[in-house]
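ok so dumb question maybe but i'm new to this and my supervisor (M.) told me to 'just get the structure for Asp23/Gls24 family envelope stress response protein' and walked off. so i did the thing. is this what she meant?? sequence i used:
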Amino acid sequence: MTIAVENTDGQIRVSASTLSEVIAREIVQIPGVMDSFESLLHLIKFSENGQLFQTNDKIDVQHRSIEANITLTLDPNCIFWKVASDVQNKAYSIVEKQFGFSLKKVNVEIGKVEWSFS
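this is what came out, is it supposed to look like this??
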């Protein structure tokens, strides 16, 4: 985890990769999500005012306009909208709990469904 503190101006910043890790650890446990923790790390992106953060970019926790964009693979037997809603709720709550700021939006995209044919 990378949290940078600058004494000169009092900023607390967190890397985009750390935010991804914290969110991925929560949503990988949600029933219906088929992605692994490792794949989720690449499927969670952050932006502010349309500008995408890179993995190593540091995000000032004072910001109030950070959006998370999460692409998922779902189990075909789950209720898609419920899983998407659970993912949104987990992302909002874990960021608030761990870092003390609120995400402006959590956008969930169902990238694919793991259809199994027997």
